[in-house]
Amino acid sequence: MKQRSSPRDAVGSELLHDTHSSKLDVWLARLSHISQFGLFALTIGALYFTVIPLYKTAALEENIARRESELNATNTKLEAATIELAKVRFEIYERTRVEVIREIVSSAPQCAGLMEPPNSFGVRTKDHYEKNLLKHDAGRCLWSSFDGSRAKEKLSPVDFAYLKREIETKTGELECMQNQALLDIRSVPERAATDPSSIIADAAAVDDAEKLNRLMPPGFFNEKFKLQNAIESVRSEIYFTFSNAVVNEFLKLKGLDWPDDK
């Protein structure tokens, strides 16, 4: 026969069941707390390793962008200042270059023989124009003026080389011009002897001769005197034409096409 369970056994069984349920609830509660703490820790970790670095990166990028903007503005100002400084330096250099040319050109009257023209010798001789022309070597005088200007110290190497070539060219041209003027002056008496009509005094010389004729005794202003006056007039014209040509050659230096301007 089947034995009936006693009430005591039933109570014990219930107590045992309640004890197991109670322990399970405790562990479930603990696990819930642990999972909540883990979730909190995970959230903190995610915040620390993702959000905060992203914020720092964004802040750094913003700071870099601001610094780049400031740097670009500074570079723009620096470029403008550099351009302005270069402009001022070139203007100063241009003035220096002008002064070099002005110093060379200032010697033109001396090199052309205009500072001591033939008439300043007092009593004229038949070759006073020739002597005065030989006394002033225009080409050598130009080179001395160039050498004394210290152009090598003041100009850029390119400009100095260019100016030196121009001076060398003009020195040769002036030498040819002077030789031709000397030859022309020497040939006037020969031309007068061959064809007196080819020797024509200028209007000023004729006017001076007529004034002198009125002051002198009759017969003083004869054909020989007129011819000699015409010879002196033609020689004077040759001399001062050459002198003016020398001055013009010097003045041409003011219009040089400098290579450093290109």
Share of β-strand residues: under 5%
- Amount of helix: over 70%
N/C terminus separation: 132 Å
Unreliable spans: none
**Helix/strand/pairing class, anyone?**
mainly alpha
Order of helices and strands: HHHHHHHH
Rg over CA atoms, rounded to whole Å, is 55 Å
**Largest sheet composition:** none
Overall number of strands: 0
Helices, by number, come to 8
> What's the overall geometry?
rod-shaped
Mean of all residue-level pLDDT scores: 79
Quick overview:
The chain has 262 residues and is mainly alpha-helical. The chain has a domain at 106-261.
Name a few traits of the molecule.
262 residues, mainly alpha, rod-shaped
Structural overview:
- The chain has a domain at about 105-260.
- By secondary structure, it is mostly helical.
- The chain is rod-shaped.
- The chain has helices spanning about 5-105, 110, 130-135, 140-150, 150-155, 155-195, 205-215, 225-250.
- The protein contains 8 helices and no strands.
- α1 (about 5-105) runs antiparallel to α4, α3 packs antiparallel against α6 (about 155-195) and α4 runs antiparallel to α6.
Q: Which helices and strands appear, and what pairs or packs with what?
A:
Blueprint (H helix, E strand, L loop, with lengths): L6 H99 L2 H4 L16 H8 L2 H11 L2 H4 L2 H38 L8 H13 L7 H29 L11
